[in-house]
Structure formats: structure tokens, C-alpha cells
Amino acid sequence: MLDGIDERLGTVLRGFDDVLDLGCFDAGFTPPASARVARFDPGFAFARRAGGVQGDEDRLPFADATFDLVVAAGTLDTVADLPGAFALIRRVLRPGGLFLGAFLGAGSLPTLRQVLREAEAERPAIRIHPQVEVRSAGDLLLRAGFRLPVADAETLTVRYASLVRLIGDVRGMAAANVLNDRTALTRPALARAATAFNVRAEADGRVSERFEIVFLTGWAPSPEQDAGRRGPPRPAGSMLPRPGGPFG
User: Fold this and answer.
1) pTM score, two decimals?
2) Which parts of the chain have pLDDT scores under 70?
3) Of 110, 124, 247, which Cα lies nearest the Cα of 185?
4) Contact 72, 101 (CB under 8 A)
5) Residue 45 to residues 31, 39, 148, 151, 162: CA-CA distances in angstroms?
């Protein structure tokens, strides 16, 4: 996710002075040169490790127009109020500021979902939190007031030798079930899931799992953007016809 964000940031010509690293993990995101960075993460251990502040993305404690770049990698898919989080991110951006985000989207972890359903066929339970489709993510950016919103997805395939290793990765990246109402996975169900997982192994004994990474780009509104959409001003006394007028 950070590689994708760095790639997109590399296409931007403007500079940035104040950066918010929203979902800082181990401070793996390197801000642009000479920029001041604030680290923020919903996980206590992640925030402490990065020397940042713990808090929820839909309750940002920053004043409006504080940053000119906000980067959010790997956390927004677990926010209770995602539209509210996008609105707050736009508010803490200065006019013309840039938001770059990435998270696991819909279509991720299909193998894990399937083997867990098979293991709990009689009483299936929700084991992975709901995920956001790429189109819906773009619509939410637009609703939050971002200009020039872009949402795209990249597929990452990872091959695992065991279900335990896959579950370990999912838990380690906080991508497991974070819903309030959840039930524990029993040992017999876990054993059945492991068997169903091993059945899907390829010739080398590994099973492929898919991660759909949604990347988001959006700009905070600015007078320059408004002027660009309206086009250049007309010369004084111009008699150019308006679109749809009597001349066409």
C-alpha cells in the first residue's frame, strides 16, 4: 500500500509542508523532504511505536486546514463511520491539499471466507468485517467534497503453506473481524477450515489468496480549481454566445 501511495505521490509536482500520516503502524511512510509529519493510528501499540497519537479516523482531533497532505494506508476499511472520516480528512486539509489513501477492498480474502463458511456450514458466522467496493469508495470521496476524486484497485496474490500463517497475517494487519457482535472460532471448526484450505493446495503445497487494494486520490477544494472549471474570464464587452443560447 505504501509503495502504491509513494508511486502516486511521485507524480505530484507541488511541495508539502505539513503531513498527516493516518494509520502510521511503524512510521513506514516517509514524508516529502523537509515536511513536518504528524503520526496518528487507531491502534495503541502502532501509535506508540511510531511516536504518534492514538485515536479514531472518524474523530480526528485536528483543527480545520492543518495539513496540505493526508496519507491513510491500511486503516480506513475498519472505520465505523467512513463517510464521516472522509469528511473530516477533507476538513483538516488546506485548500488545494491532497489526500492519498489505500485499504483492503471488496473481493479480498475469498479463499479464507470460503473455507470458514465450509467449516461452519451449519451455523456460519461473520469472520471478516464488511469491505468497501472501489466504486463506492470513489462515490464517498465525491460526497465528502473532494475534487478530482480517483479510486482504483490493484490485485495482490499471496501464496500460503498453511491456514495458520494466513490467519496470522490477517490478524497482524488488523484485517480480521472487528465487529462488535462476534463469536469465537471453535477448535473443531478451525480444524475443518484447515482441512478445506489444504485441499486447495497446488502442486507445491501452497494455496493462493487474493488481496484487493483500493487506492484513493482526492483534492480539497480551492479557488484555483474553481477558476479552472469555469474557464478563463471573457474579455470585457465580449458578445460570445452562451452554450444553449440562440446561436447554438
Assistant:
1) 0.83
2) 225-248
3) 124
4) yes
5) 21, 13, 35, 30, 27
